[in-house]
């Protein structure tokens, strides 16, 4: 058992299960966030996904605002905003406003994946046709300057003020799974979340953790997939169907998708006649609450993880609730409650 505490947080895609209607499903999502606060989880993040029938978290900032208004302690944020689609100024305005509404509770997590199918991306970015393409690193630099109100006088957007000004700016976290993204986060002075729910390669993870720690003296957050149940067999059965495929188009573009049908549709919408879809193994933990706790303890000991972002791999809200409660009970079974509530 580790001697140092660590925190647990949650990532939610706000899925609308097949056969459910959106209002009921989203009301259940809000109830899960409220339960997370009651159970002592540290953060509750919403991912950005679109262009799929089950997608409920198409605008994570809207869900963040709604949940902040219905909770009082838990941190709430995006995991993450797909910055390539947006003007950094608008993202800064939105999250500065959220931070002013809920001081000290807002997280701005940022990623670079498309977050949806090509046609949805084209529709989202229709007003940007013909605009100058910005490198992702440049957009991150702009976002940081707008969020903290420190735009250089010679910058092309000098004089643009992202109001209102919060007492405490939103926490900024870059999501990724590479040395490059970890180094970018360190350069910005941001926190970093390693996306183990997409890439669970232990050697790469160790290298990225070590590099970020060398540059900053801090450890990344670690996102991973975990499903806890009172029955080990049932937990493994529910988690077993989880698969990801890394789709690569001939133009070099790559994206992670949940199944081969989605891979074929992505290629079709991209106009690609040739593509590859290789299975990849996300970092998945499945078992009893005690088994999940022991696995987290081991990762904490090996990598020094101070906070885990748990992605529960089921859309059914009752099953998600049960998994949250099972894991919380296991963490409370000994002194480990401090890990969750600290």
From TrEMBL:
Luciferase-like domain: residues covered: 19-302
GO molecular function: oxidoreductase activity, acting on paired donors, with incorporation or reduction of molecular oxygen
Annotated Pfam families: Bac_luciferase (PF00296)
Cellular component aspect of the GO annotation: cytosol
Homology family: To bacterial alkanal monooxygenase alpha and beta chains.
Name of the featured protein: Luciferase family oxidoreductase group 1
Organism for this UniProt entry: Novosphingobium fluoreni
Upper lineage: Bacteria, Pseudomonadati, Pseudomonadota, Alphaproteobacteria, Sphingomonadales
């Amino acid at each position: 058992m580790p001697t140092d505490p660590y925190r647990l947080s949650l990532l939610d895609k706000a899925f609308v299960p097949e056969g459910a209607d959106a209002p009921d499903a989203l009301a259940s999502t809000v109830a899960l966030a409220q339960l997370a606060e009651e159970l002592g989880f540290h953060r509750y993040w919403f991912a950005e996904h679109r262009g799929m029938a089950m997608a409920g978290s198409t605008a994570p900032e809207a869900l963040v605002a709604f949940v902040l208004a219905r909770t009082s302690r838990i941190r709430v944020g995006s995991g993450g905003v797909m910055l390539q689609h947006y003007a950094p100024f608008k993202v800064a305005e939105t999250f500065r406003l959220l931070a002013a509404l809920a001081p000290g509770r807002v997280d701005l997590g940022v990623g670079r994946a498309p977050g949806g199918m090509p046609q949805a991306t084209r529709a989202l970015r229709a007003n940007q046709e013909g605009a100058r393409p910005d490198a992702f690193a440049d957009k991150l630099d702009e976002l940081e300057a707008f969020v903290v109100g420190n735009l250089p006088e010679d910058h092309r957007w000098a004089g643009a003020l992202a109001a209102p000004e919060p007492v405490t700016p939103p926490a900024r976290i870059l999501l990724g799974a590479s040395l490059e993204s970890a180094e970018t986060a360190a350069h910005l002075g941001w926190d970093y979340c390693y996306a183990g729910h997409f890439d669970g390669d232990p050697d790469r993870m160790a290298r990225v953790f070590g590099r970020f720690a060398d540059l900053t003296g801090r450890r990344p957050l670690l996102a991973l997939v975990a499903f806890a149940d009172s029955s080990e067999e049932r937990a493994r059965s529910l988690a077993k169907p989880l698969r990801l495929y890394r789709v690569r188009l001939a133009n070099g573009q790559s994206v992670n998708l949940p199944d081969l049908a989605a891979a074929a549709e992505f290629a079709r919408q991209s106009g690609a006649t040739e593509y590859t879809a290789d299975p990849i193994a996300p970092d998945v933990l499945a078992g009893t609450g005690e088994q999940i706790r022991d696995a987290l303890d081991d990762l904490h000991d090996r990598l020094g993880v101070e906070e885990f972002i748990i992605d529960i791999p089921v859309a059914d809200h009752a099953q998600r609730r049960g998994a949250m409660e099972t894991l919380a009970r296991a963490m409370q079974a000994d002194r480990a409650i401090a890990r969750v509530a600290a």
